[in-house]
Amino acid sequence: MKRPHSAGGGQIRIIGGQWRSRKLPVPDSPGLRPTTDRVRETLFNWLAPWVTRARCLDCFAGSGALGLEALSRYAASATLLEKDRIVAQQLRKNLETLKAPQGEVVNTDTLSFLAHPGTPFDLVFVDPPFRKGLLNETLHLLEHNGWLADEALIYVESEVENGPPNVPHTWSLHREKVAGQVAWRLYHREVTTGE
After folding, report:
1. In whole angstroms, what separates CA 135 from the centre of its chain?
2. Cβ(138)–Cβ(173) under 8 Å?
3. Distance CA 95, CA 99 (A)
4. Burial of 185 (0-12, 13-18, 19+ CB in 10 A)
5. Could you give the angle at which helices 65-72 and 37-47 cross, rounded to 10 degrees?
6. For 124-159, how does the pLDDT look when each residue is reduced to its tens digit (9 = 90+)?
7. pLDDT tens-digit series, residues 45-101
8. What is the DSSP string of 9-55?
């Protein structure tokens, strides 16, 4: 049985950009693990040349730490996918608090959402709940259903125990970091558009 949400929960802190140091509430939900401040700082240093004006997709939004950080750093838009209704409601409230109309929360199952033909995004965050077998299917759907711009960047957070994810041949590994049980990888998609 799924344990109930507690009223407590925790909070995330936005690290950089227009909302730097703002703290936002996060509901207590099973399996929710916000990307740590240290990892986000490293990731957004990697992304610095690209994040401004990027169209972002956060596939497993959870706390919203990645999508909100991107918006704080002047991404053009961020679509946050979140399956848990209570977590999705809090994400909407946090966007209202930040007065961020360029952010959108979709309360949905990510694999079902990505199974439909998509519109291309420049920057995609893939940080699924661990040990649920969601990662490779998510990456496959992103690549094959039109969710990625030709030069898209894809951030993948996954368990070390499973080894590197099975990524499409058009993706090259741009940066990689491993700490403890978690691996962070940033891929660059390079597609040559034929005539």
Report:
1. 12
2. no
3. 6
4. buried
5. 50
6. 999 998 889 999 999 999 999 999 999 999 999 999
7. 999 999 999 999 999 999 999 999 999 999 999 999 999 999 999 999 999 999 999
8. EEEEE--SSTTTT-EEEEEE-TT--PPPHHHHHHHHHHHTTT-TT-E
DSSP for 76-121, written as a single string: SEEEEEES-HHHHHHHHHHHHHTT-TTEEEEES-HHHHHTS----E
Paired tokens of 173: 């590994």
Amino acid identity, position 83: K
The residue type of 157 is E
Beta-carbon neighbour count of residue 39 at 10 Å? 18
**Taking CA 140 as the corner, what is the angle to CA 42 and CA 173, rounded to the nearest 5 degrees?**
35
